Each structure stands twice: as structure tokens, then as C-alpha cells.
Amino acid sequence: MAEIQLHNTLSGKVEPFVPQNKGEVRMYTCGPTVYDYAHIGNYRTFVFQDILRRFLKLRGFQMKHVMNLTDVDDRIIVNAAAARKSIREYTEKFVQAFFDDCKTLSIEAPEHWIRATDHIPEMVSLIQRLQSNSFTYPGEGSIYYRIAKFPNYGKLSKIDLTGIQVGARVDNDRYEKESARDFALWKAPKPGEHFWETAIGPGRPGWHIECSAMAMKYLGETLDIHTGGIDLAFPHHENEIAQSEAATGKPFARYWLHAEHLLVEGEKMSKSLGNFFTLRDLFAKGYKPSALRLCLSSTPYRRQLNFTFAGLTQATNTIERLRNFADRLQTGKFPAGNQEGMAARIAKAAEEFDAGLSDDLNTARALAAVFDLVREGNIAMDKGEFRQGGVGGIQQFLATFDKVFAVLEDNDAAKLQALGFGSAEAGLSDADIEKLVADRNAAKKKRDFAAADRIRKELADRGIILEDAKDGSVRWKRK
Length: 479
Ligand code: AMP
Ligand code: ZN
Fold this sequence. Notes:
By secondary structure, the chain is of the alpha/beta class. The protein is 45% helix and 16% strand. The protein is built from 15 helices and 17 strands. The chain has a five-stranded parallel sheet with strand order 5-4-3-11-12, sandwiched between helices. β16 (464-468) and β17 (474-478) form a beta hairpin. The longest helix is centred in the last third of the chain and has 23 residues, at 309-331. The protein is globular, with a radius of gyration of 26 Å. Residues 30, 32-33, 41-42, 44-45, 228-229, 231-232, 259, 261-262, 269 line the site of adenosine monophosphate. Zinc ion is lined by residues 30, 211, 236.
């Protein structure tokens, strides 16, 4: 197996990955701010983190992985007050939607899924530690972090703050500060808004202190890996480092991994451009969860992902091809024995798959190893050269692939149903059905019965029954 190499934003280099404790990885992921449904850009980052987690598990590491839910921030407080709900009541719907979405995209649950509002005492005690080290100062009931006292500020994002003028707004804090660079650890209550009564006064936590306090509570003072989208490197992660390291005197996280953003048809996603999508928007258009997962994971995380509908359709076809091949292996009748060179060919694919993922999670390279073997396997089957002896090895390789990519198992219809998309046939027009029936006829003609059966099953899952007449014609009806 290849040595695992990961790009560390802190050093700006690709480095061998070696955790502090042999066999164990302590990883923290900044989760969603639950004031609305998460969008496909967010899920690009969450799927990247899931692929990382699954690959490390495949390599035998025991994961201690924490993901937080930011369930208190200015938007949540304002929206909850407008809806006359408590913070918990207001965010519950979006927390549940996030969990459901993760399940639908086969994003594994981390060992700890935690909420910011359950950790106010930990945040307060971290602020007290910073107060006793003179890293803070008060202002109109709020408490600020004094960046001038932390000389390493900027080491993660390499940002040069010398040009930031006093009075300029770096973040959304609307309070008086010694320096524009400083940020709020604790925010004074505003009339009519929710606050907590604590030993450091009434108020609510700043966003950055949440992650420092929660990460260190569950993972200790030095984490192995901290992840997020690239927009979080500054100021969020820079501030997490400043807070945590000022309190402990120890490095906060050893490897920082950041995913580049998702664009839609080459443009930044935004509601005003009409190119803003949640998972549910895409499922309502008839796309499958597995296709979206493959689409989000096939571009390596450090490259911008240009999401297009053509790409999503291509991912849908790829999934179909992979599942057909898996079915062909399962149900095909091949002559006994071994095809010459097949065992070595499978071993080479497995090696290349591992080398791709070890290469800073190069998912495109890992997937190419899978697609090449599938193509060659299909050709060998078509030519009648494939032998039964190759079945087990390829099945084992596909199972390994699916432990990381999680797209092979055909559970899309059930997942969509669980999300409330009916029996999923809603997305199938008569023309869609006719097209699938024609595809099935073509498969039968080529004697690819596995593919024909797959299509029959897919239609059945979507509520369409096929009737094969004696004269070879096919009729269909809705259940
Ligand atoms: P938020 O809920 O805004 O805190 O974001 C949750 C995660 O999604 C963070 O890791 C963000 O960096 C990430 N993120 C936000 N927008 C995008 C995008 N367009 N592409 C990829 N990741 C994103
Ligand atoms: Zn965070």
C-alpha cells in the first residue's frame, strides 16, 4: 500500500500523513449552520470529508471524528425571533433535514455529532482561560480577542492583515473593538434576542469559539486533522487556531484540509442567479442520490468542482454501467478456469485505486482504476473470454471501491421514498419509460440479460410493470 499523502494548508505542502497515536485519527469537521437547507456546495465539502473518513477507515485507522452543528448565530437568532420560536424549535427542522440528506448521500455519521448550544459551559470556560492569559478585552458587554497578542496570527491562511484599517469590517461583529482585526468571543445580548446567563456575563458565543471549545472537549488539545471548505480558512480557522493555541500553548491541529468550492455551470452558486440547488431540488427533477454522490466526489477536493447537469447525467450513466457490470458478474455463466493475466490485472487495479486515494485523495485517479477494469471486464465478457475464476477477485475489488465511494448498492428508490419523493415514479414521464423499455429491448438483443433485468427492476422500483408478449413486444403499465 502507498504512503498516505495529504495537502496541509498550514505548511502549504503535500505531506505524509502520520497521526499522533498509531492506528487512530482524531478529526474535526466544521458542520453546517442550520438556519436553512444545506446546498450542493456544502455537500461537496461534506462528501469530500466522508471520502477521507472512509479511506482512513479502509486503511485500518480507528476514527474519532467530530462534526458540529452551528445552531446559534446571528441569522438563526433573527430568524427564530421572527418566527416566534426558540432556537431549538427553529433549527430542529434543518438539523433533521441535514441528517436525512447525509443519510441519502451515504455520508457516514461521525462518532460525535454535536450541537453548539449544548456546549455553552465549555465555551465560557475557554473564554475564561483566555481572559486569565490576557488575550481578551471587554467592550459594551461583549468580549473580544486581542489578535496583536498572538504573533502567529495568519499562519494558516497566510493573510496579510497590515492593510486592514481600523474601523473596516472583517466580520459581522457590530461592536466597538481595539482593532478591526479583533473578533468577538462573546457577544452582548441585544434587546428581544435570545441569550445565555453565564459567569462571563449574559450573551451568546461567537462562531469561532464554538469550534475550538467543542473540538478540544472531544479530541484533546491537539487534533490530527481539521477540515472544512476553503472559505473557512480565513477568518474562521485562523481564529480557531488563535483561540486554542493561546489557551493551551500547544498546536491546535496538525493537518488542515480544505475543499475548493463548487460552481454551477462555471458560476458562483447564488439564489439571485437562479443556480442555487439543494439536494431536494435535484431529487425533485428525477436525479438519483448515488449519481449526485458520484458527481460530487469525482473531482479531487482541491480542484474547483464545476457542477453541470450534463455531468450529473454522465454520473447517472456511470452508475448504471457499474451496477450492470456488478450484476453481470453475479448472474453471468462463465466457463470455469482463469483468464490469462486476469489475477494480475485485478491486483494492478487495486494497487492503482489505493495509490490514487493515497495521492492527496485523488478521487479521479482512483475512479479511473475502477472504470478501466470494468471496461476491460465487459469486453472480455462480450468476447466470451471471461472465466469464472475472475469473478471473486473483481467482486472483492468492487466491494473495496464501494467502501469508499458508496454508490454501487442499489438503494436509490428506497432513499428517495424515505425523503418523501413518493414511489419515485413521479420523475418518470411516458417518454422516459418508453426509452427505458427500448434500452431493455436492446440489451436483450445483445444477450446482455443482466442489463435487461436491471432495467426491469429499476422500472418495478419506480412503480412500472412490464409485460412481455409472446410476439416479442413489450407493454408497460403503472402499478
Ligand atoms: P456553512 O453552513 O455555511 O457553515 O457551510 C458548511 C460547509 O460548506 C463549510 O465547510 C463551507 O466551507 C462549505 N461550503 C460553503 N459553500 C460551498 C461551496 N459553494 N462549495 C463547497 N463547499 C462550500
Ligand atoms: Zn468551525
